[in-house]
Amino acid sequence: MESEAQHIGFFRNLFTLTEIIGILCVSLTGVWIGYFRKGFAWRSNPSVEFNWHPFFMVLGLVFLYANGALVYRGFRSERKKKLKVIHMSIHLGAFFFSVLGLVAVFDSHNLADKPIPNMYSLHSWMGLSVVILFACQ
C-alpha cells in the first residue's frame, strides 16, 4: 500500500508540473504574438491592439482561472480565511484580464480604418457568454 506521504509527493509534483505548463502557455502566447503577430499596441494601432485579446484571455481564463480553482487543493495547510482571500484575488485578476481582452477586441474592431462588425461569429457570442457567466459566478 502507498502511504499518504507518497500521495502528497505525487500531487506536489503534478501541481508543480501544471504550474510550469501554465507559465509556459502564457509565455509562448506572448512570444507568438510578439514575434509572429507583430507585437502589442493599444489604441495607437488598432490592428495590433487585437493581439492583446488572445494574450489576456489565456492569462485570465486559462492560467489565473485554473490557479484560483486549485488554491484550496494546493495549499491545504493554510488557514481557510487566507485561502478565500487568495482565491478571490486570483479570480478578480482573471476577470480583470478577461475584461481587458474584451476591450482590446472591441477597440480593434471599432477603431479600424474600416470598422469590423462586433459579435458576428459564434466565437464572439460564446466568449462574451463565458465572461458574463464567469462574472455571475
Give a brief rundown of this model.
It is a multi-pass membrane protein. The chain has 137 residues and is an all-alpha fold. It has 5 helices and no strands.
Topology, please?
Elements: H1 4-36, H2 46-49, H3 52-74, H4 80-110, H5 122-136
Walk me through what this model shows.
It is a single chain. This protein has 137 residues and is mainly alpha-helical. 77% of the residues lie in helices and 0% in strands. The chain is built from five helices and no strands.
List keywords for this structure.
137 residues, 77% helix, single chain, mainly alpha, oxidoreductase activity
What is the alpha-carbon Rg in Å? 18 Å
Rounded to the nearest angstrom, the distance between the terminal CA atoms is 40 Å
Low-confidence stretches: none
Q: Quick one: how many beta strands?
A: 0
The number of helical runs is 5
> Structural class of the helix and strand makeup?
mainly alpha
User: How helical, in percent, are the residues?
Assistant: over 70%
Largest sheet: none
